[in-house]
Amino acid sequence: MPDQLPRVFDALVDHNPTLSGEEIIAHLVPPRQFETATLQSYRPDPSYASQAEAVAAVTTFTGAWTAPRGGFFSRRKAPAALPGLYLDGGFGVGKTHLLAALWHAAPGRKYFGTFIEYTALVGALGYAPAVNLLHGASLICIDEFELDDPGDTRLMSRLLSELVASGTRIAATSNTPPNALGEGRFAAQDFLREIDALAAKFETIRIDGLDYRRRDVEGHAVAVTDDELERALAAETGTVTVDEFDGILEHLSRVHPSRYVRLVESVDTVALRNVHPFSHQTDALRFVAFVDRLYDDQVRVLATGTPLDQVFPEEMLAGGYRKKYLRAISRLVALTAGEGV
Prior knowledge:
By secondary structure, the protein is α/β, with parallel strands linked by helices. It has two domains: 12-17 and 213-335, no CATH class; 31-66 and 79-210, P-loop containing nucleotide triphosphate hydrolases (Rossmann fold, 3-Layer(aba) Sandwich), CATH 3.40.50. The chain is 42% helix and 14% strand. It has 15 helices and eight strands. Strand 7 (269-275), helix 13 and strand 8 form a beta-alpha-beta unit.
């Protein structure tokens, strides 16, 4: 019987994804790991009362769709709830879970996406067509509201203001703006200042706590030897890609971050050879966006070389993007922790 031929793996660098406005809209739903997220399935840490309080606040926010309306002869009118909800907290406290649970609870036409996906939609369709397409939605959820680009932030502020004026409700989580340091939480005031046209319409909910991924996964990102990688790849049965780390970084520089979701679509495992620390912050930030999409789709990561939780040098971790890098490290610890190596 002839020997079985070795399996040939695809490479992400050979993928050149495109994404039309219509395809972006189709992707504006919670990521795969949050397809069934509910307020009941959120696990508040009993050591941090703000987590249970956040569940209560999100539940109250959904009341605008479920509360009975006052009758014609009602003497008192119920106070109107603010149309916006902003979840403020550190990475790994469950903000995205709560945002997805809110999306699932909302009626009618609704959208869930990252800040990058919404700005890409405006870029693909144009501002007025994007507003017309989103007009009439019951809820717009924005995960990872970016404050790094003032132009894009202002664009989103204008778009959301128009949607709120037409009756759409908004919920958001946010990343840290440049030079906003501090442990454990994001800067709510920086978020509200950047979207001043909307600030008075948002209720800010602070969520304290530890990274839940570290509750479940201890230690560091797993790095494997070349031999261990070959054995792991031989045992894989799903869709696997194998790339050099430098090749991935170069390829990410040619693909818009809004298309990273298509880059890893239907991939089960990504293997990276010869990982090393970053020397350029632009590469590091693109990789963070790439890791976010890997995490959304729960793509397993196998890597040789430097452990992936050690690729961000100390000078980067001490800078204005510290929180983004720490979130990526947290997610890489979880994604490299699979069995079978």
